[in-house]
TrEMBL record:
<dbReference type="InterPro" id="IPR002539">
    <property type="entry name" value="MaoC-like_dom"/>
</dbReference>
<protein>
    <submittedName>
        <fullName>Acyl dehydratase</fullName>
    </submittedName>
</protein>
<dbReference type="InterPro" id="IPR029069">
    <property type="entry name" value="HotDog_dom_sf"/>
</dbReference>
<dbReference type="Pfam" id="PF01575">
    <property type="entry name" value="MaoC_dehydratas"/>
</dbReference>
<feature type="domain" description="MaoC-like">
    <location>
        <begin position="188"/>
        <end position="260"/>
    </location>
</feature>
<dbReference type="InterPro" id="IPR003965">
    <property type="entry name" value="Fatty_acid_synthase"/>
</dbReference>
């Protein structure tokens, strides 16, 4: 967004004092269309915290190879995402949002000790059948070179246009065949929350999740993406690539899930499925970028 006004931060933002106000926002008023504040945040010279990186690798399953895991820059950007959603002009309650899709583009591998400059902004507000979707854009540069970017698409239920969205008929997904099984412990949400800063109560304990209508805690969507890419770590391209995921059914933990990967014409597709090998928690597509 060319008209976004960026504000530079001296350090990663802590939880703002208006957090409760932002969480309890009433949402979209009937007959009124929401707008996003035209603000962005910039954080420069983010350096390596080796202890934090080690903890992130451990909870997500990445091996140490001298490079940042492909999902790791999202951890640095997440406090900026939250700060944007705490802005006075932000129209939705933070606790009512659902992360539905995520796209990461890595333009080249990032060495562990490179200093990162991170820029985040809001955009792409669209009314859909049952509510509203918007994006949080992140761009990461180092020494003036763009090395990583992402788009996180979030959904707010309420105020939708009510019309069925046209979707291409894709038929029933092919049944899973060659899968591996993962055991996901019940403390995964607490461990990932400790390294990511995303301590949403729905991820922590059965009791805190029940307060928000869940039968027990659920895994973070971005943990599921990271865990899948950790499994694919040795297959990630050296050149620029993009990885898209769509978050599907919540993963109640502890859980036993299945991971499947399939070759595609221009890359590979992968899925995280429930123990029955049918119900999807996550679908993803890994594609190299063209010249």
């Amino acid at each position: 967004m060319s008209d976004v006004q960026f504000r530079e931060l001296r350090h990663a933002p802590a939880m703002p004092v208006n957090f409760a106000k932002a969480v309890l926002r009433a949402g979209v008023k009937p007959g009124k269309n929401p707008t996003l504040p035209k603000v962005g945040l910039r954080l420069n010279d983010v350096g390596l915290d080796s202890k934090h990186l080690k903890a992130y690798r451990k909870v997500c399953g990445f091996s140490a190879d001298g490079r940042l895991p492909v999902t790791y820059p999202h951890i640095h950007a997440f406090p900026l995402h939250m700060a944007l959603m705490m802005e006075d002009g932000f129209p939705f309650p933070a606790m009512g949002l659902v992360h539905v899709r995520n796209r990461i583009t890595q333009y080249r591998p990032i060495a562990e000790r490179e200093q990162l400059n991170i820029k985040c902004s809001l955009g792409n507000l669209n009314q859909v059948e049952k509510g509203w979707e918007f994006s949080i854009f992140t761009v990461v540069t180092t020494a003036g070179e763009r090395v990583w970017s992402s788009e996180s698409i979030n959904f707010f239920r309420g105020g939708g246009h009510g019309r069925k969205d046209e979707k291409k008929a894709s038929g029933e997904p092919a049944p899973a065949t060659d899968t591996i099984e993962w055991k996901v412990p019940g403390n995964t949400g607490r461990r990932y929350g400790a390294v990511s800063g995303d301590r949403n109560p729905i991820h922590l304990y059965p009791l805190t999740a029940k307060l928000f209508g869940f039968k027990r805690q659920i895994a973070h969507g971005m943990w599921s993406k990271a865990r899948a890419l950790a499994h694919l770590q040795s297959q990630l391209p050296e050149e620029a690539f993009r990885v898209d995921v769509q978050f599907k059914l919540p993963m109640f933990i502890p859980a036993t899930v299945k991971f499947e990967q399939r070759p595609a014409e221009d890359g590979l597709d992968f899925r995280v499925l429930a123990r029955d090998g049918v119900k999807p928690h996550l679908t993803g597509q890994l594609r190299p970028l063209g010249e």
